[in-house]
């Protein structure tokens, strides 16, 4: 049988890392089995669903490279299918109208709580007579529709991740609401458990893979499959992503949506690699750095952990830096052009491309995130750099001013700067002033960049020179020095 899997996000927020990771596992499993991956937007909660969230979800999945084969399907366009299923259940006596008001249900819950019992519906309207129903109708009450759940049922399935899972019907909270209140004879907005099952049946889903937070829904859904006379799919519940204190990662932990990660300068390849490792241990033949296709080739649920997976920023940063350091220069530059344009830096992406490429090569080894190139690149685009405390004290070292004067004179007489002339200017200034070469190097760096640490000095000098900024910066450092003395 061809594997058919789906990701079914609700557009009630941006694409969350947890949903994206579930999408990754579905994608890997689907691709491993040459199956079909389906995107379904679960938008029946019309109060909380928003089209900008749908767009964010779709563009996030695309950005991550999680391409789907069918969809997106929208549940709000499929309401007649859910209504037909509810009607089938009503006709078969497996579902019924319940007229309880929210106040009555609150009261029931309060009494259960007072007795130390778990809250559950007591099925009180299961067997209303037609007269009782008409009396409620006459009061103007609008019933919900509930699906019968027998307390003495035992529900069991073999979970792809967790093995045998067993639930008792009595633990499912009583008969379950499957559609919201609406006048009797009509069917209100159908609810999650019902619509998911109707769609998973209609779309021929063979493997329902979703987060562990849905595990309590699965026994209810299994009962609905039975009631609708459909064969059961496999179910797999993937471990949750946890924050550093072991709680489910939530909005309170700051960044949780894929677009946030994108804005922070993470690469899609690094993020999918990292998400795959969140709960899955790759077999030995796969190194820790892999793309989705390589992971799909060896993916199986045997290696998905049951325990929650702690989100580890250091690991993600390390992976992201590995991808950045190995990326071909032209590709990295395309990313950085967007980052630098976003920062408002002034350059011509076409005409300045050779210069931009040298700059990219200079910065590449120290990038952890793409956005690091904003601070690291600033001094190459903007004149002048601000001097940090270390740079100022470096410029105040004895001999620094003479070194800079020597370098400036050398530059003014030299014309073009090449790696060779740069080195010989440094050597010459060092000798002429009678200082250690380290002092010359640190002083030159302080003058050019406003800091005493940074990437390769000769390359930095050459790149600044190509923008004609080295001489003004030497002059400025000299004038700073003379002003402070
Ligand atoms: N709309 C649900 C969610 O976003 C889907 C759960 C499922 O996969 O069944 O969590």
Automatic annotation (TrEMBL):
Domain Aminoacyl-tRNA synthetase class I anticodon-binding stretches: 340-477
Q: Does the keyword Metal-binding apply?
A: no
- Per the annotation, the residue ranges of the short sequence motif 'KMSKS' region are 248-252
Major site of localization recorded for this protein: cytoplasm
> Do you know which InterPro entries this protein is assigned to?
aa-tRNA-synth_I_cd-bd (IPR045462), aa-tRNA-synth_I_codon-bd_sub2 (IPR020751), aa-tRNA-synth_I_CS (IPR001412), aa_tRNA-synth_I_cd-bd_sf (IPR008925), Glu-tRNA-ligase_bac/mito (IPR004527), Glu-tRNA-synth_I_codon-bd_sub1 (IPR020752), Glu/Gln-tRNA-synth (IPR000924), Glu/Gln-tRNA-synth_Ib_cat-dom (IPR020058)
Q: Which residues bind ATP?
A: 251
Quaternary structure, from the entry = Monomer.
> Function of this protein?
Catalyzes the attachment of glutamate to tRNA(Glu) in a two-step reaction: glutamate is first activated by ATP to form Glu-AMP and then transferred to the acceptor end of tRNA(Glu).
**Catalysed reaction, written as an equation:** tRNA(Glu) + L-glutamate + ATP = L-glutamyl-tRNA(Glu) + AMP + diphosphate
Give the protein family.
Belongs to the class-I aminoacyl-tRNA synthetase family. Glutamate--tRNA ligase type 1 subfamily.
What UniProt keywords are attached to this protein's entry?
Aminoacyl-tRNA synthetase, ATP-binding, Cytoplasm, Ligase, Nucleotide-binding, Protein biosynthesis
Chain ranges of the Glutamyl/glutaminyl-tRNA synthetase class Ib catalytic domain: 3-318
Where does it reside? Cytoplasm
Report the EC code(s) recorded for this entry: 6.1.1.17
**SUPFAM superfamilies recorded:** An anticodon-binding domain of class I aminoacyl-tRNA synthetases, Nucleotidylyl transferase
Q: Which organism is this entry from?
A: Candidatus Synechococcus calcipolaris G9
Motif 'HIGH' region, residue numbers: 9-19
Q: Which PANTHER family is this protein grouped with?
A: GLUTAMATE--TRNA LIGASE (PTHR43311), GLUTAMATE--TRNA LIGASE, MITOCHONDRIAL-RELATED (PTHR43311:SF2)
What's a Pfam family in this record? Answer: Anticodon_2
Q: What is this protein called?
A: Glutamate--tRNA ligase
Q: Which GO terms describe its molecular function?
A: glutamate-tRNA ligase activity
């Amino acid at each position: 049988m061809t594997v058919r899997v789906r990701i079914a996000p609700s557009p009630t927020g941006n694409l969350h890392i947890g949903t994206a990771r579930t999408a990754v596992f579905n994608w890997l499993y689907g691709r491993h089995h040459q199956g079909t991956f389906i995107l379904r937007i679960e938008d029946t909660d019309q109060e909380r669903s928003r089209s900008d969230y749908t767009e964010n979800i779709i563009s996030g999945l695309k950005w991550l490279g999680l391409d789907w084969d069918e969809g997106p399907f929208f549940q709000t366009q499929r309401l007649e299918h859910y209504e037909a299923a509810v009607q089938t259940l009503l006709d078969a006596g497996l579902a019924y109208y319940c007229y309880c008001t929210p106040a009555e249900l609150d009261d029931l819950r309060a009494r259960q709580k007072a007795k130390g019992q778990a809250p559950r519906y007591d099925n009180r309207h299961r067997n209303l007579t037609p007269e009782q129903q008409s009396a409620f109708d006459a009061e103007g009450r609008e019933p919900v529709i509930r699906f019968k759940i027998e307390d003495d049922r035992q529900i069991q399935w073999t979970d792809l991740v967790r093995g045998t899972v067993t639930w008792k019907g009595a633990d499912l909270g009583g008969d379950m609401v499957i559609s919201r209140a609406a006048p009797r004879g009509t069917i209100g907005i159908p609810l999650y458990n019902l619509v998911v099952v109707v769609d998973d049946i209609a779309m021929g889903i063979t493997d329902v893979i979703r987060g562990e937070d849905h595990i309590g829904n699965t026994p209810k859904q299994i009962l609905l499959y039975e009631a609708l006379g459909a064969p059961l799919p496999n179910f797999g519940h993937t471990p949750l992503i946890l924050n550093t204190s072991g709680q489910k990662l939530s909005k309170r932990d700051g960044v949780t949506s894929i677009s946030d990660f994108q804005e922070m300068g993470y690469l899609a390849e690094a993020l999918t690699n990292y998400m795959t490792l969140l709960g899955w241990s790759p077999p030995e033949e796969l190194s820790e750095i892999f793309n989705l296709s390589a992971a799909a080739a060896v993916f199986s649920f045997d290696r998905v952990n049951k325990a929650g997976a702690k989100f580890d920023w250091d690991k993600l940063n390390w992976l992201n830096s590995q991808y950045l350091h190995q990326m071909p220069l032209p590709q990295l530059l395309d990313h950085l052009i967007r980052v630098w344009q976003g920062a408002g830096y002034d350059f011509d992406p076409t005409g300045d491309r050779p210069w931009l490429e040298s700059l990219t090569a200079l910065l590449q080894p120290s990038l952890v995130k793409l956005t690091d190139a904003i601070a690291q690149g600033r001094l190459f685009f903007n004149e002048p750099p601000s001097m940090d405390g270390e740079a100022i004290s470096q410029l105040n070292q004895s001999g620094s001013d003479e070194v800079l004067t020597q370098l400036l004179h050398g530059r003014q007489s030299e014309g073009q700067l090449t790696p060779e002339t740069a080195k010989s200017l440094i050597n010459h200034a060092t000798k002429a002033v009678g200082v250690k070469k380290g002092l010359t190097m640190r002083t030159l760096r302080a003058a050019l960049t406003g800091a005493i640490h940074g990437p390769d000095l000769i390359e930095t000098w050459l790149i600044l020179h190509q923008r004609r900024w080295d001489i003004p910066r030497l002059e400025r450092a000299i004038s700073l020095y003379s002003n402070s003395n």
